[in-house]
Amino acid sequence: xxxxxxxxxxxxxxxxxxxxxxxxxxxxxxxxxxxxxxxxxxxxxxxxxxxxxxxxxxxxxxxxxxxxxxxxxxxxxxxxxxxxxxxxxxxxxxxxxxxxxxxxxxxxxxxxxxxxxxxxxxxxxxxxxxxxxxxxxxxxxxxxxxxxxxxxxxxxxxxxxxxxxxxxxxxxxxxxxxxxxxxxxxxxxxxxxxxxxxxxxxxxxxxxxxxxxxxxxxxxxxxxxxxxxxxxxxxxxxxx
Length: 240
Hints:
This protein has helices at 50-57, 80-90, 106-116, 121-134, 150-162, 180-194; strands at 6-17, 24-35, 39-43, 65-70, 91-94, 168-172, 200-204, 216-221, 224-230, 235-238. By secondary structure, the protein is α/β, with parallel strands linked by helices. The chain has one domain (37-62, 77-234): Rossmann fold, CATH 3.40.50. The strands form two sheets. Strands 5-6-7-3-8-9-10 form a seven-stranded mixed beta sheet, with helices on both faces. Helix 3 crosses helix 4 (121-134). It is globular, with a radius of gyration of 18 Å. The relative contact order is 0.18.
């Protein structure tokens, strides 16, 4: 492919749920490239397959057909322990449901990726506190998730996804619980940390307020990519 190298390449990706008469095709032959250094947004109606697609990209789900390469590597071919290790180092994921551990403080939740990667506890928590300041949670580092609002929990989840500086950050509705001003500040943090010449950011969103941060916008319908828009120029790459 011409242009920047690929962070992600999906070719003919199909994902099924169920079998027989109950079978549902969640992804119907997805072809998608995420380029190094870009912020790609996935948009489309609820149920069109956006969350399934980013889960395949991040190695949380396996596709049934096709391939999805992450920085040139098919991580589904790795042994389970190597795959887990690779994902822990290379990928940050912001879940729509946040997935915070209720018995850990905000700082301890954010520190988890670094602890998994072998960083000493005190160093990991210190780095976590710094990332929490980046998302405007200074003074809430020692709060438990139940002591935080939904928007604050969302920012903890974002800090956790970026704290270990992964090469690919994948976010599912990262601004859904945030007001406009806070959402823009959080998007700037995400873009600054997650987008560089050797990394990329993929965001699923319904929030048109943050489209301005995208380099390209891929639109999905019924498990397919139907168009890719160059955000800066407003041009479209139609997908058959």
